[in-house]
Amino acid sequence: MASPKLRRSLSEIPSQILSTISSLTSLLQSLNPKHPNHPLNPNLTILNQFSHHLNPQFVIRVLKTQQNPYHALFFFNWASNPNPNPNNYSHNHFTYIAITDILISRNLFSLATELLESNNKLSDFMMGKLIKAHGDLGHIRWALHLFDRVRVRYSGRCLFSYNAILGVLVRCDRVDLAEKLFNEMIGDMIVKPDVSTCTVMIKGLCKMGEIEKARKVFDEMSERPNLRTFNTMISGLCKKGLMNAALEIVETMKGSDDCLPDTVTYTTLIDGFCKIRDLEKAKRCFDEMVSRNIDPNELTYNALIDGLCVSGDVDDAKSMMIKMRLNCLKDTIVTHTSLLKGYCIAGRSDEAFKHFKDMVGCGMKPDSKSYEVIVNEYCKLSRPNDAINTLKEMTKFGIRACSFNKILNVFVELKQPDRAVVLINQMRQMGCRPNFLSYNAVICGLVKAKGRMKVVEKLLMDMVMNGFDPDATMYGCLVEGYRDIGNEEMAMRVSREMIDKGFVVNRESS
Q1: Containing domain of residue 109, as a range?
Q2: Residue 294 DSSP class
Q3: Nearest to residue 108, comparing CAs of 33, 216, 30?
Q4: What's the CA gap between 137 and 140, in Å, rounded?
Q5: Domain count, the chain
Q6: Per the domain annotation, does 247 fall within a domain?
Q7: Whole-angstrom Cα distance, residue 456 to residue 481?
Q8: How many CB atoms lie within 10 A of CB 301?
Q9: How far apart are CA 147 and CA 130, in angstroms?
């Protein structure tokens, strides 16, 4: 099946050309593209009937309709030297981009490299594509290898490859290495960073919380920042809560002709103000956005709705959702999860539970976050049975269950550690492995309940087999448990083990 984008592009092509492309594709599909000279293949001269159609646009269209990348490559190679060639056709930069994109999209990197190299087309631009493709697959070492290769080949004059490798390193959280390459780039002065270079570095530095370094890159840019650069810097400042600095940058954007604030800019500001609980300024940004004829999108509304809900103003949040619908935007599970949180924060638990049931009744599928809100609220109300039933419902719908530790703690608080033991043993069946906190809550709860040391020993063995060792608190509980049942020998043994592992024994445990 052709993709929607491809179907749209094909619908814009004249029917006669479409018919020719269809005939050519059918013929290509009858060939064995990996063995073109195979005796069972039709005579390749049959392709000559299409020679007079060859031009870059036609070739690109044919390439994009091929489901098999080897058919695309076969056609590309044939079209590079057709005989006859009434149009004097030869591939151009864009046809090489088209075949390279096809081969890269199917992870045929060697074929793409070989094709480009044999035709002397392995340019900085094309190498940038290969570097990015390897990075997208997590092949970081190979991406770096390609970058080193192109840097040597072009004596450092490889801006596209620099931008590609910096993007790869930022996406895989190797910002330290990206920064080193960026500094080398500036120090060598062989190739000057462009807007894309600076934008990716700003993004990486903001991602690592290095906001001052990011601001330095932004302020020292030799070219004027574009809209993406502005929004990246604003996002970094907002995530750090530096809203005044973010507003200053927005003011400079307002005074420009080519980089006016857009929906992303205002949505970022609104989310930033909501995160620091400054709802008045968030609303002011929203109103200013509308007054400047900039349309809010789902992310804008959801950011403001979430901010209102976190502040407990769930009624205003509901009004905002209605406004969202009136503007022909659809509320999503993200919107409703925020409302669920809002009800819970406002102490309106029953309304949260009702809203959750209404959501499901309307055909909306809750996700793990919305379920987690409900489970946590049941735990807060000391209703572990309802919380467990909610977890079972999650499992039934194929959603990974959550918040087990909170339920375990509720059982311990209610002095029902035996029920906690049952739940911890059921966790794996419900798609979640117990962690150290799970074991710690139940083991210490059992010790305090007295007379459960056999069960404690079984759980402790299970915990160690799953890779978790007791900490000082748990050792203290175990010593206390053994002393309560008069087993001084085991109490001393646990104390010695505790000392051997470097934990300090307090007076109560000694």
Answers
A1: 1-122
A2: P
A3: 33
A4: 8
A5: 1
A6: no
A7: 9
A8: 25
A9: 9
Per-residue pLDDT tens, the chain, 510 aa: give them: 445 554 555 444 567 888 889 989 888 888 777 766 655 565 667 888 899 999 999 999 999 999 999 999 999 999 998 989 999 999 999 999 999 999 999 999 999 999 999 999 999 999 999 999 999 999 999 999 999 999 999 999 999 999 999 999 999 999 999 999 999 999 988 999 999 999 999 999 999 999 999 999 999 999 999 999 999 999 999 999 999 999 999 999 998 888 999 999 999 999 999 999 999 999 999 999 999 999 999 999 999 999 999 999 999 999 999 999 999 999 999 999 999 999 999 999 999 999 999 998 888 999 999 999 999 999 999 999 999 999 999 888 888 888 899 999 999 999 999 999 999 999 988 888 999 999 999 999 999 988 889 999 999 999 999 999 999 999 999 999 999 999 999 999 999 988 888 876 554 444
Q: Among 158, 74, 157, 160, which Cα is nearest to 115's?
A: 74
Q: How many angstroms separate the Cα of 471 from the Cα of each of 287, 436, 492? A: 53, 9, 17
77 belongs to a structural domain: yes
Q: Cα–Cα distance between 81 and 91 in angstroms, integer? A: 9
Q: Is 273 among the domain residues?
A: no
Sign of the Cα torsion 413, 416, 421, 424 reads negative
Is residue 13 assigned to a domain? yes
Q: Is the pTM of this model over 0.70?
A: yes
